[in-house]
Amino acid sequence: ALRRVLGVAEDVSEPAISLPAFLDRFPAHLRPLVQPLFFRLSREPESRFTRWRRNANILGGATSTSPSGTSQGSIIAQMESDEEPCAPLQHLVAGLSVFIRGGVSWPVLLEAWVGEDGSDPCAGARAEAAAELAATLCFWCAHPSLCPGPGVPGGVTPSAAASVLAGWEPDPLEAVLSALCRSPDNRSPSSEGAGTSAEVTERLMDTVPFLPLSVGPRLSQALFDAPPSPDCHGLQSRILDRGLAFLLRGIGKSLWSSGPWDLLYSDWRDGRSFSAFLQGVLHYKGVAVVVLRAAGDNGEILGAVSDLWEESGASFGGTSECQLFSLWPTLRTFRSMGKSKHYAYLNSQSKRAPRGVGFGGERGAYRLWIPADLNVCEVLQSDAAFESGPLLRHSSSCSISRLEVWGISGPAALAAQPHRARTGSAA
After folding, report:
1. Angle between the N-to-C axes of helices 123-142 and 106-114, in degrees from 0 to 180, rounded to the nearest 10
2. H or E element: which one contains 20?
3. Cα separations (Å) of 44 from 50, 416, 423?
4. How far apart are CA 184 and CA 195, in angstroms?
5. Are 87 and 47 spatial neighbours (Cβ–Cβ below 8 Å)?
6. How far apart are the C-alpha atoms of 281 and 269, rounded to whole Å?
7. If you count Cβ atoms within 10 Å of the first and of the last residue's Cβ in the chain, which end, N or C, has fewer?
8. Backbone angles phi, psi at 132, to 5 degrees
């Protein structure tokens, strides 16, 4: 199939694919982003560097030294010879098979831009830049029906204001890159003391390990004429734009593999009351995501993933599927540590225990707590159930501006709720 798609004659004994033929299978906004993958895929299965890769100047001018001591020049620069960059068909097929069947990972994507040499003192800064490029590739691969607005270089709008003036929707990719590529101490990627390449990779693997899985299906569609994948599902949310919803899906396997999400509760639709909240979430037989936006100029977004949607009285419930997250302005995830089973708490009936919904911690001192009035959120820095770290940057509490709960487990989980079964209503 690859021969036919790329126009390689059947009678050629040692077929090769040229870079222009490879890039021509992708829309214009993806070509600069998939070009490094061509060189990555062209490598011999057991070789770290190939002839074309040795001529790569990673990320526009910086050089590094390969394990064999060869300098890498720009992958988009003029080749030393007049011939076009080509990849042996068998190497390309072998690499694509791994990408499509096994899934692409952050280490593979980042290596396409920065190489594997960890001794280069500039590798960390280049890895931060590569993280933005790789995240951009993941976003567009997950949204094949979308493309950047006219005149938007690299698929990133100059600013939200420019988008409005040009008549475009605010670019959701801007939120993705800002939240994902900002380090927890809010350093910019180019600032002095940027983390090492390994640290950048580890951060991405820890927070959003599933985003690169969008790349394989897009390659399959472009190069093997596979049926187009549907866009990553958007949400009718007043908290999550398309970019933040995409980012949130990437933090966990169940979120990434889920279909359309169902809005179980929102304060703007159902009213700010605990009875309305309970009406929306009780007896949901699956995983749901609580998302809230803090009031104020910063508008921090945080929440929890939980599989407990039954009254727990004075007790905790849930499983290690539960996790906490801070989504905006900096993405952090706090997964189960297995030291405590105090994952989730939901009580509206027992007068001997706090009424509200909580996650982690102990009764009366929850890691994340939303009391029954739904007006404030209280957080702690650490507990025994989840990894430590700040859910809010500079405070232990915030007023709630918006609150939503999204069910991610499909129609069967929704139908298990008695009131929906009676009315036959969806979210």
Report:
1. 120
2. helix 19-23
3. 7, 52, 60
4. 11
5. no
6. 14
7. N
8. -65, -45
Strands (DSSP E) contained in 58-187 are: 86-88
pTM of the model: 0.84
The pLDDT tens digits for 214-232 are: 999 999 999 988 888 889 9
Q: For residues 330 and 186, is the Cβ–Cβ distance under 8 A?
A: yes
Which amino acid is it at 25?
Answer: R
Paired strand residues for 306: 288
17: left (phi over 0), alpha (psi -120 to 50) or beta: beta
Tokens, residue 132: 């933005």
pLDDT, tens only, 354-410: 999 999 999 999 999 999 999 999 999 999 999 999 999 999 999 999 999 999 999
| Residues belonging to the chain | 427
The encoded tokens of residue 390 equal: 């700040």
Structure token digits, residue 280? 């929306």
Joined together, the tokens standing for residue 258 give 């889920």
d(CA 375, CA 224): 52
Secondary structure class of 179 (helix, strand, coil): helix
Enter the DSSP assignment of 232. P
* In contact, 343 and 322? CB cutoff 8 Å: yes
What is the per-residue burial (b if ≥16 Cβ within 10 Å, else e) of 192-201?
A: eebbebeebb
SS3 category, 222: helix
Rounded Cα distance between 201 and 427, Å, is 38
CB atoms within 10 A of CB 328: 20
CA distances from 89 to 9, 20, 41, 54, 289 (A): 11, 14, 10, 19, 44
Residue 75 CA: distances (Å) to CA of 62, 107, 136, 156: 11, 18, 18, 21
Strands 262-266 and 301-306: unpaired
CA gap 140, 35 in Å, rounded: 14
H helices within 12-155, ranges in order?
Answer: 19-23, 31-41, 51-54, 58-61, 89-97, 106-114, 123-142
412: CB partners within 8 A, 6+ apart = 285, 286
DSSP annotation of 150 reads T
